[in-house]
Specification:
This protein is α+β, with helices and mostly antiparallel strands. It has helices spanning about 5-20, 25-45, 100-105, 150-160, 175-185, 195-215; strands at about 45-50, 85, 90, 115-120, 135-140. It folds into 2 domains: about 5-140, no CATH class; about 150-215, no CATH class. It has a 5-stranded antiparallel beta sheet with strand order 1-2-3-5-4.
């Protein structure tokens, strides 16, 4: 299937609105909730399905058995429920103990390239009595106008995440296998809503150089 950025952005916007502003939210509150979701997307980027494994929102993961691409306990988050992901943030709407999310974010290790924050949202999202929490990734450097993560960040972040794996690795995984983990979803052959074609190609070239060096062992053949 062809990867069409505009179509994915539009479909994601509609999914977020339908999920976070269900029909049971009506009247003036509905308009406020819709405006809030639109504002979050404007600030945090389009709706996505998973993150690249090197993204600061999921990279605080000490386990090396498999990449983490969704906010969960393995990368430090607790209490998440009814969650929608965006390029640089996510909203989670638990019915109880929303403070658990905020506490877990505050315990995340510091990151030299981005700051992860959590805040309570004043308007109702999802279904009452759920309480909405916005977790944001605020990059330390200014992002390009297209909102994509540049290769100057994506490549070193991927290397930081993957290079330590050489000690336990027995087989090298191909680019085709690792592409969903490095590009996030939705994605195409070399790009996604996180990275453009140029950055995706740089990630591919670097990864192929690593696996063909033999540092992870023989190339795994499916």
């Amino acid at each position: 299937m062809v990867f069409r950025v505009d179509e994915e952005v539009k479909n994601g916007f509609e999914r977020a609105m339908n999920f976070l502003v269900p029909l049971k939210i009506s009247g003036a509150q509905r308009k406020r909730s819709q405006d809030l979701v639109a504002d979050i997307i404007d600030k945090c980027g389009p709706v996505v399905g998973t993150y690249p494994s090197w993204h600061p929102l999921v990279s605080a993961n000490d386990e090396r058995d498999s990449p983490v691409v969704y906010p969960e306990a393995r990368c430090g988050y607790h209490g998440l429920d009814h969650t929608v992901l965006f390029v640089n943030g996510f909203v989670s709407c638990p019915y109880v103990n929303e403070q658990t999310i905020i506490d877990s974010v505050e315990k995340l290790p510091s990151n030299s390239v981005a700051t992860i924050t959590a805040e309570r949202l004043k308007e109702q999202l999802y279904l009452p009595p759920a309480k909405a929490i916005l977790v944001r990734c605020e990059w330390q450097q200014m992002m390009p106008n297209d909102g994509m993560i540049p290769k100057s960040l994506a490549v070193p972040l991927m290397l930081e995440e993957e290079l330590p794996c050489w000690r336990e690795a027995e087989r090298a995984e191909s680019w085709e296998t690792m592409r969903p983990y490095f590009l996030g979803s939705p994605h195409g052959g070399r790009s996604s809503l996180f990275v453009n074609q140029e950055t995706g190609q740089a990630l591919k070239n670097v990864w192929k150089s690593l696996i063909y060096s033999g540092m992870f062992g023989p190339l795994k053949v499916d």
